[in-house]
Amino acid sequence: MSKFQENIKHLIPRPKTPVVKPPMYRSIYTESVRRTYKSNNNCHRTMGYAEVELDPPSQFLKKHTRKETRPVIVEINKTRCCARKSIQRPCEGSATNVSKKLPTKTRKNIRQTNIIDVIKRVPPLPKHRVQDTRNGHVIVLNEAGLEPTYVSKKNYGKTPAYIVKMYKEKEMAQLMETERKRAVKPPFRYLPESERNEMLNGLKSNWAELHKEFLLLPMLTDTVPKMKRKTMLEKQLNDLEKDIDLLERNPSIYVCQDA
Question: Would you say residue 98 has pLDDT above 50?
Answer without folding.
Answer: no
